[in-house]
Structure to design on (482 residues):
């Protein structure tokens, strides 16, 4: 009854059965699953989880004595702290881009540059390279308005475009530093950051190519039309799409709400990487530090998105001379849309957090400790199982790199440890489902149903992860780098 694997199965049954079988609202099903998982988890397992996370003995003991409701609320709140402001600001940016005509201007420029047939590939590659310095969810928030506007322009391929931005952002998030998971992995396994960036980008391009072809197949097999939503009514987008070029904001002005947060985040990421390497790009004087302070302030993802939202609202005001009442109604619609997404995503985070407290990661590590097989597929397998069990790709990366770091140092690998790190990254893509907050973000922003996401997004990441494993094993054989 207290085995983490048994608790995991109960949680999976409750959440999946509640949403798909009983047609419960996802928020209710996730909270119900989290409550049951927390109830079945013994106090000593919670204490061990705390110790594994680096808490002191006293703090871990205090965590185990907390009530179920308090632990659940803490995980719910932690998820809100990570994504709450991001979702609200992204909702405002997205709705402003659509209403002001900025999204339409960007789409027309993309079509002129790449052509109609290459639009999905352009979205795929753009989301991959944006996903290197920017968090996965931020890329989805910023690009989804463009997907909706592009779909209405093309009149087709909504699912293909959604899957393309998902594919690119997801692979970059697990393969290329300075994304947080790969950044921890390279420090734990002593892999040079430059090598991981180059190797991760190469493997990533192979994986997103396979993802692109799978997305084209899925789009033909299960075509999904774009749907109305509170923050992006199709009729409003069609009206904007019918405008002449002269009625739309300029391309530079249209890109500002996206470029400003991206620029701040990228600049802060680059400076942080240099600082960790012991490099002061502008020197160590007070003047230099004073110059860098604003970059650090605005480079925070929350502040960056707030800045983008302010600019987006200014662009909207400059294009649509609305009164105060209409403007307030506009913001209210964006906030209502964001509120629902936050609730479901935070509930998914709470469910995943309760699963982690069962000790499921350590249980799986124990089961695989004596598993005799080649290290690359072993790393992939452990990472995939841990990701599926607790929902977070970053947690899977951190956990498995800790498990295998000693093996990478001492074993006679016959290849560079970077291949082991890449295998962990690709394994962490399998299998996204209801315990993953990213699953809910893509579901709710795209208006896909849970069933649609499970048969499209989930196998998409599985295909890309397995492609990565094959590429890594071939690379380790042909180019061992030792």
């Amino acid at each position: 009854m207290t085995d983490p694997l048994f608790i995991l199965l109960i949680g999976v049954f409750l959440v999946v059965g509640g949403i798909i079988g009983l047609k419960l609202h996802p928020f209710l099903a996730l909270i119900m699953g989290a409550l049951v998982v927390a109830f079945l988890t013994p106090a000593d397992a919670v204490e061990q989880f705390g110790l594994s996370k680096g808490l002191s003995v006293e703090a871990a003991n205090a965590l185990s004595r907390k009530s179920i409701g308090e632990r659940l609320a803490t995980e719910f709140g932690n998820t809100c702290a990570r994504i709450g402001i991001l979702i609200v600001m992204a909702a405002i940016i997205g709705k402003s881009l659509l209403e002001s005509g900025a999204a339409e201007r960007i789409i027309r420029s993309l079509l002129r540059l790449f052509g109609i047939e290459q639009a999905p590939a352009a979205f795929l590659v753009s989301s991959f390279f944006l996903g290197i310095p920017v968090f996965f969810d931020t890329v989805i928030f910023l690009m989804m308005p463009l997907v909706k506007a592009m779909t209405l322009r093309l009149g087709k391929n909504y699912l293909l475009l959604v899957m393309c931005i998902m594919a690119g952002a997801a692979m970059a998030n697990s393969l290329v530093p300075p994304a947080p998971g790969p950044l921890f992995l390279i420090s734990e396994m002593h892999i040079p950051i430059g090598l991981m960036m180059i190797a991760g980008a190469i493997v990533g391009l192979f994986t997103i190519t396979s993802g692109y072809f799978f997305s084209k197949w899925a789009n033909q097999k299960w075509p999904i039309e774009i749907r109305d939503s509170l923050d992006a009514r199709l009729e409003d987008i069609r009206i904007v799409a019918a405008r002449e070029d002269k009625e739309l904001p300029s391309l530079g002005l249209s890109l500002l709400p996206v470029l400003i947060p991206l620029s701040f985040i990228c600049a802060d990421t680059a400076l942080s990487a240099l600082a960790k390497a012991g490099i002061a790009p502008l020197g160590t004087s007070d003047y230099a530090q004073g110059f860098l302070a604003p970059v650090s302030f605005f480079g925070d993802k929350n502040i960056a998105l707030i800045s983008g939202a302010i600019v987006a609202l200014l662009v909207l005001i400059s294009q649509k001379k609305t009164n105060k009442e209409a403007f307030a109604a506009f913001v209210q619609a964006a906030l209502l849309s964001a509120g629902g997404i936050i609730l479901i995503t935070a509930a998914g985070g709470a469910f995943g957090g309760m699963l982690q407290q069962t000790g499921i990661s350590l249980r799986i590590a124990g089961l695989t400790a004596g598993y005799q097989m080649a290290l690359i597929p072993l790393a992939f397998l452990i990472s995939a199982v841990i990701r599926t069990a607790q929902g977070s790709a970053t947690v899977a990366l951190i956990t498995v790199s800790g498990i295998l770091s000693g093996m990478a140092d001492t074993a006679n690998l016959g290849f560079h440890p970077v291949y082991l790190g890449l295998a962990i990254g690709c394994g962490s893509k399998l299998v996204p489902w209801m315990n993953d907050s990213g699953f809910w973000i893509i579901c709710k922003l795209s208006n896909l149903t849970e069933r649609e996401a499970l048969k499209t997004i989930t196998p998409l990441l599985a295909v890309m992860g397995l492609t990565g494993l094959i590429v890594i094993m071939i690379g380790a054989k042909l180019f061992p780098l030792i």
Summary: The two ends are 48 Å apart (CA to CA). The CA atoms of residues 181 and 397 lie 6 Å apart.
